[in-house]
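Batch 3, record 17
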Amino acid sequence: MSTQSDNQPVPAENRASGWVIFVFFLIGLIASLISGWIAFPNLLYSTQQQPIDFNHKAHVAQMDCSSCHFFRDDGSFAGSPTLDECKSCHMYPMSNDPDEQKFIEEYVKKDKEVPWLIYAEQPPCVFFSHAAHVKGADMECRTCHGDIGQSTSLREYQENRLTGYSRDIWGYSMLRLGEAKHGGRHKMNDCAECHLKETGSKGDCFQCHK
Amino acid sequence: MTKQAQHTKTKRYGMVIDLDRCTGCGACMVGCYAENNVPFRKDETDKMLSLNWLRVFKVDNGKPFPDTEVCYIPKPCMQCDGRHMEGHSPCVSVCPAVATDYDEPTGVVSQIYTRCFGCRYCMAACPYHARKFNWWDPVWPADMEKYLNPDVSVRMRGVVEKCSFCYHRYQKARDKAYVEGRDEIAENEYQPACAEACPTRAITFGDLHNPEHEVYELSRSKKAFRLLEKLNTNPKVYYLTSKSWVRRKADNYLEGESPADRKPAHKAETASH
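Prediction for the assembled complex:
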């Protein structure tokens, strides 16, 4: 019906208003990118500090990773050391470090476990076998956890307010690009990616789920 | 079907239940409830609403006293291999979410609760009623939440759950083997809770492919049969019985449907099959 009007040339003032629309579109795009990439992640994650600071580098200079992060006889992995294991050296202060003083005053003397925040804690539906990776496949800790053995203090812990999971599960890049840094990127697809490369298969569901 | 990892040897874990030994005490059910965090209700009188991964059925020969005979049939998930032994079990083939899948290295049919969205196609497809639906969130009495098994995830309302042959025990046994530098796990290292709980040792569990495992011989014995074999689901749960009426009940046909009815000449052959 209106074919005649469609073929008419566009008036000059209409072309100018096209620019106005484009500028408004650009403003809107930039505003949504800022909210999506900067504001939203800050809202989504809460930041907490570890109860006491820990110097991995100072410890690694005197002992192996496996002195504290060891396998039990039944094949399970001990994870973070308990108070008893720390106490075997730190019953009394070994240095002038204020964090060590705090550890002895608040935890050793009160016989209270340190409520460490676990960066790589997986959701309860996940079965992760340290034995299969460290013993079976001869992998190093740093392949997944980053070079944490050389760190002199503990980084902050970020928790997803909606899911309660550590930010390390999603990773620090919102686009999930690049190699895993600080041990970030521990989602199912990240596991599957490596499994596909190393074993030729993403694995069956029950290999990693319970 | 996914490609196998090079170092894993395919196993086919299965169960042989000796019905002549089963007394119907229900210890296997109790063991299963405790091991797998299976929720229960305050009032369990209505068995239609009960959740259970393993249920002991009671059948009788239908004859009046004094000829009455009773047999108890403990019935976990049959972990079907499918018609051509390729893992095409009834539930796996209908799941639209790939929440249930066939675990290639062990032959166990997996169920991932976080992936399931509760359409219950699998329950309709399963001829053994092995699957149960969570109509409610589990409610644990008093501080029982602290006694839950951390190796088995707790299910929420709206998902389907079923027996996993205590797969977490397989994973733990594998972990131990890794730490000790072994490739294979021993027969007694991986046993499901029901097999361990059985006081008469009616339940035997192991790798049906491995001649050194007890189930290898038992599953090939003349007394062995499986439930509803006519459906070609190829279950990995075998039953042993010396009573012919139990066998007939286990693979029941409608009147005139049985191959034995149609070809009376081959009756003896079909019975021994």
